[in-house]
Design goal:
Length: 707
């Protein structure tokens, strides 16, 4: 035993001491450690680290937005120790911190940028805090019911008058602090106002008395508004736009309005658009579909060096896209992000007599690819983009030329080989009606557990396989069925029926999923409505090869009456050591002991969401999983269990783990219960927007819209 000890001590003496690294290397290493750990823990280990942890490069910007372990006491101590050294503070989405925590921000006298989106801030607290932040240039806040601008002090308004960038999330009809921000250059507005109060009363979009102050837009360069569903949000945003229609800012170069459903154009908005066509040159544009459809607006708007376009859900034809936006093939190397989601005719020369399922015109896509060769984010989802049989003109072959792509969203029917979809007869599962009954019994082959057998099943000559091989640096991929709709929409009851998949998508299955495993740097993957998944074997390939995968969303894979890919999914999860977010939406999903045992291998997992009509869960398995996975702070399950079972499990989780996990958010509720929408409204916006609700997120917003 003495010999063993001497050998170990000799190895330690010959090993590399971390403290022998240069300060530059150590600072780079320390930059990956959360600031709270650096200041409150690491710097107390030795004198050298005590000095390095307080280096300006580490304390200049403090990011707490996803530090789920931070609590009020840690924030208080952090502000005491380095408050004067902080110039940028991001506390976005820290919903679990009490409102009194904001009081400690007053110690950060030199703050230039402050993000408090998702934090509880009252009018009085906001006034007290902003009164001390005389250097503030960028601010993000929420405006909740009860907000009263008359409570803002003169010192607070003086600070707001110097703010150049404002991001404001509205939960009540209000101008918020916009009228006080007289120097605004960037304004981001998120409208999350519900049409009904908790008591069931209809809300009005008219602003409260005393809030009729006119916003100041004369210096505005960027205007962005995102609306949640509801007529009240539309009413309120029109009040914000009314000032713009009177006088369009001369320096405006980005005008973006994201509105779901129908948002009709009015005389005021028409005047605004006409004024923009005459007076400004834009670099980014997004408009509600009703403002573009059937109008010649795009023909008159002028663009400078555009970096972002979104024509989501518009009836814009490919001919108009090329002629009016790309100017017949104009060089658009500046364009880095393009959203054509739901733009069903965007790859066809005209839309008047065309059916949505007709083949695309490959020459239009080719012109797009050639002109916009530097695209990094492209969304073509929610449409039928069917390639013709012409050799070399398949959509996947043309997209493979975009070597700079970082994120891509495609409909399932667009990735199939034309010959395969025409010549291959439907496989056995596709002959079965897409029902939800438990009585469906189809024999399926067991997926090959041997990687060599899996490799033999890959169709390496397919166009999709070649596309994945050419986009080696892709970080985000979404393959979504053109007719897919989530069972859990925003402000409505759960959808009980789903549309069948596109005929062209019937052959897309395991081999196409296996092709995705070529994306070594993949971080986020969404697969929805792939009807020909037989075993899910391709998922295992992804788990093994894509070691950077952080976000995984799977919905309605294979036949609907049975979860045919469960075995493969469990094997996949054993390899996903970096996975942080997992969303599963599948009828009859059984969240049992075996599933949670496999999921426990995902040691980095933070958020879990399961949506399953007639799905079942085992309470003991869930509790054991929560005990084993210490990083999990969000557990959302919308299943087929009874309300009593769901409530008991939710209470047990909160009672057992809330104390040691301050950010813990648990919602377990029957999916088809009539009160689901009331439960959803209490979910923190960060989780609701990022994982709980299903949507395509590629090119949803311009890149780097907010810091």
């Amino acid at each position: 035993s003495q010999e063993v000890v001497s050998e170990e001590s000799e190895e330690e003496s010959n090993g590399v001491n971390l403290m022998e690294f240069s300060d530059e290397i150590l600072l780079h290493i320390l930059s990956y450690v959360p600031c709270t750990d650096l200041v409150l823990n690491v710097r107390r280990t030795c004198r050298k680290l005590a000095t390095l942890c307080l280096d300006k490069s580490l304390t200049h910007t403090v990011l707490l937005q996803k530090d789920y372990k931070v609590n009020k006491d840690k924030v208080k101590q952090l502000m005491r120790d380095i408050g004067k050294e902080i110039y940028q503070l991001n506390m976005a989405g820290c919903y679990w911190l009490p409102s009194s925590t904001i009081d400690h921000v007053t110690r950060c006298k030199n703050l230039v940028k402050l993000n408090l989106s998702g934090c509880h801030v009252t009018s009085l607290r906001l006034s007290k805090m902003l009164s001390t932040l005389q250097h503030l240039c960028s601010l993000a806040i929420d405006v909740n019911p009860g907000f009263d601008a008359s409570q803002l002090s003169s010192e607070c308004k003086a600070t707001l008058s110097r703010v150049l960038e404002l991001k404001q999330t509205l939960y009540t009809p209000s101008y918020g602090v916009v009228p006080c921000c007289t120097s605004l250059e960037k304004l981001l507005l998120y409208f999350e106002i519900l049409d009904r109060s908790r008591e069931g009363f209809m809300l009005s979009g008219q602003l409260m008395v005393g809030e009729s102050n006119v916003p100041h837009y004369q210096n505005l360069r960027i205007f962005y508004a995102r609306l949640a569903p509801g007529y009240v949000n539309q009413e309120v945003v029109r009040l914000y736009l009314a000032v713009l229609s009177d006088r369009t800012p001369e320096n405006l170069h980005a005008f973006l309005i994201s509105a779901p459903g129908s948002f009709a154009e009015t005389g005021a908005t028409k005047n605004l658009l006409d004024s923009m066509a005459r007076n400004v040159r834009l670099d980014a544009l997004q408009l509600p579909k009703a403002w573009i459809n059937g109008s010649g607006l795009l023909q008159h708007l002028k663009f400078n060096n555009p970096f972002y376009f979104s024509f989501s859900r518009c009836t814009l034809s490919g001919g108009h896209l090329i002629q009016r936006v790309i100017n017949g093939g104009k060089d658009l190397k500046s364009l880095t992000s393009l959203n054509l989601s739901g733009c069903v005719h965007c790859l066809a020369p005209e839309s008047l007599f065309r059916k949505a399922e007709d083949d695309i015109d490959s020459s239009i896509l080719e012109s797009l690819v050639v002109s916009c060769c530097n695209l990094r984010h492209l969304n073509l989802s929610a449409a039928h983009h069917h390639s013709s049989e012409s050799i070399g003109n398949h959509l996947c072959q043309l997209l493979s030329r975009l070597k700079h792509l970082l994120s891509l969203a495609l409909p399932v029917c667009s990735i199939t080989d034309v010959a395969a979809s025409v010549e291959k007869p439907p496989t056995t599962p596709n002959l079965v009606p897409q029902t939800f009954g438990r009585k469906v019994r189809i024999g399926i082959q067991t997926y090959p557990r041997n990687s060599g057998d899996q490799a033999n099943q890959k169709i390496e000559s397919s166009v999709f396989w070649a596309l994945m091989g050419s986009l080696r640096f892709l970080e985000t991929l979404e393959i979504i069925g053109s007719s897919f709709s989530s069972a859990m929409p925003r402000n409505e009851p759960a959808i009980r029926n789903s549309l069948p998949p596109c005929v062209r998508a019937q052959s897309v299955g395991d081999s196409e999923v296996a092709a995705i495993s070529q994306l070594t740097y993949l971080q986020s993957l969404t697969l929805a409505q792939l009807p020909n998944i037989l075993t899910g074997s391709g998922l295992v390939n992804i788990g093994v090869q894509c070691q950077h995968l952080r976000t995984l969303s799977l919905a309605n894979l294979g036949m609907m009456g049975k979860v045919v890919y469960m075995s493969a999914l469990m094997d996949m999860l054993k390899h996903c050591k970096c996975l942080r977010d997992l969303r599963l939406e599948q009828p009859y999903f059984c969240a049992g002991a075996q599933f949670f045992q496999a999921l426990s291998h995902c040691s980095s997992l933070q958020r879990l969401c399961i949506v399953s009509r007639s799905g079942t869960l085992q309470s003991d398995a869930v509790m054991s999983f929560m005990a084993n996975c210490l990083e999990v702070i969000m557990c959302h399950m919308f299943m087929g269990e009874s309300l009593t079972v769901c409530k008991n499990l939710q209470q047990s989780i909160v009672r057992s783990f809330q104390a040691e996990r301050p950010a813990l958010n648990v919602v377990i509720f029957p999916l088809l219960h009539e009160d689901l929408t009331e439960v959803i409204r209490d979910v923190p916006m960060r989780h609701l927007d990022e994982i709980t609700l299903f949507k395509s997120r590629v090119a949803e917003e311009p890149p780097n819209l907010w810091w």
